[in-house]
Amino acid sequence: MNNTDRPDRRCDSVIPPAAVAALMAWFRAAGRALPWRGERDPYLIWVSEVMLQQTQVSVVIPRYIRWRKRFPSVEALAAAEVADVLKEWEGLGYYTRARNLHEGAKFVLTALNGHIPGSYGELLRVPGIGPYTAAAVASIGFNEPVGVVDGNVARTMARLLRIGLPQRSPEFHRRVRSAVESSFGCHEPRWINQAWMEIGALICRRRPGCLPCPLHRYCAAAAAGDVANFPLRPAARAIPERTGAIFIIERAGAVLMVQRPLTGLLGGLWELPNAMADEQPAVNFIISAGLEEVSPTGLIARHRYSHFAVSFEVFRARLDGDWRHPFWRDHRWANAAELAGLPRPQVHIKALIAAGLITA
75 catalytic, yes or no? Predict the structure, then answer.
């Protein structure tokens, strides 16, 4: 974290310059040594930022290291099969991110001669790159003075400036981004952006650790004694739970796996045959798929997505002939070694582990 200061620039910020200086001093001393920190390759910055969206850092670190070895460049990613990309993404969830990365890499290779754009505006041309990712790559990779606003930054700025606007409103986002960008005057944009994200991740969390915070004396919400009230969030809504049935069908030491359509939820992933209760009653699915000798295992496989949760009762069954069902794109009989090579949704991995067909 060297060369974070820019003494040639005038400090002109809506945040007191002393607060910005305190933040940067804290960041140099307490910032985490992450495998992507200090990275200048815009491709690897792109990958790390996409992985970190809606995924904990502890989960991302080993997957990022593996990904970097498997797909070390935008050319390597563009040349990969989508199934291999999804397999490397397994465990990170939100698989649309992986497909978008793959499509974006192919666009960079074919339309941009393999060169990732260096500006925020040009980055937005790349399929799958939105405003947040474009800002992160432009700032961290190319030092463009554009503010990066993730959940950590939004929470920190809402408290520091006591922004009394709903967190999801466009005006709230504009205020936060403007505040971040106003702090660039005396510091490198690539580092100040990371410092704001870091303090939100480590100190200004949902349950903030205000006393060790280097910004405590400058924080408007702390002075008012209402830090917990910011940012303003809509009332939490209950997450609906969908129920269904998963069917384990074995033949000659292999398990039947089916591939989801390439588009839509969990597109292209391989899973056990299953039926969601709100789409098709299990008994109707059993008849239409030609299943026999269906017996419950007593196992339940559960998983939580961002907007709903799923709970599958696990059954064992036998086919009365060949597999047939129009929903799935493809099917195969996979032994234990082949199962490990297929990209699978987490809830189906949990079902396979519970049934003793694979190990964790």
Answer: no
